[in-house]
Amino acid sequence: MSLRTQLRASWGLIVLNGIIPVKRMPLYLVNTLGAPFSFLFFIYIVSQGKFVGLGVAGGLVLTTFSIGTSLQADMTHFRVDLKLQDMVVASPMRASTYVLGMALSELAFATPGIVAFLFVGYATQTPGILGLPIILATLLLIWALGCSLGFFLATYLRDIRETFAIAPLLSLVLSVLPPVYYPIILIPENLRWLGYLAPTADASQLIQGALGITNDVNWLGSAAVLVAFTAAFMLLAMFKAQWREK
């Protein structure tokens, strides 16, 4: 397939899995934004607005990372129920085109939340000149990481209901327990390295620094961990995902 044909195929997947569902049922957007904005609301109430920046940073990470969770469910549905992946495998479409189209389609659900959190962040915090580029680069890495993990898992799951068990677990382990919605300095210093092991925590630290919430950011270390995890999950998806049924 030519590059133009590949791009058209990706756009078709974006329309099929992203634009059409949102147009038919806007409640999809509410569902995607429910958890991140709930955390932001409670942080605002409990802290009386003092720590709203932490809620913004955590909300940006959770909203973007949840794309991977959504991708896992959608691709499992397409593979198991609709047999779409079998048709794609039998067609000239490349696996990379299919995954990219599906991953981009999830942005239809996440983009409104990302824009809303950025608005709140810039309205309540004091980001630096490089704040927005750092935030967008961080979100791009989290998006790639989450989608790679989602695609990898989706090729092994046998039933859409299995995603209902995995998605909350991923959210708990990578978005709630690590220092995503709270500063890492609250963790005892001798255990702080455990917090940095979660790529979502490093992403939140970078965004907190970009928004001017904290000056205590290990920029190089957090960026290195996030890039390393993203590359590792992308390689995992490329070489270990079960693209063709055995």
Question: What features would you describe in this structure?
Answer:
This protein is mainly alpha-helical and 246 residues long. The protein has one domain. The protein has ten helices and no strands. The longest helix has 30 residues. The chain is globular, with a radius of gyration of 18 Å. The model has no long low-confidence stretch (mean pLDDT 88).
Task: Describe the structure concisely.
With 246 residues, the chain is an all-alpha fold.
Large-scale geometry: globular
Broad structural category: mainly alpha
As for the number of domains, it is 1
* Order of SSEs: HHHHHHHHHH
Architecture blueprint of SSEs:
Blueprint: H1 3-24, H2 27-47, H3 52-81, H4 84-90, H5 95-124, H6 131-154, H7 160-176, H8 192-196, H9 199-210, H10 219-240
Helix pairs in contact: 1-5, 2-3, 2-5, 3-5, 3-6, 3-7, 3-9, 6-9, 6-10, 9-10
Question: Main attributes?
Answer:
single chain, 246 residues, mainly alpha, 0% strand
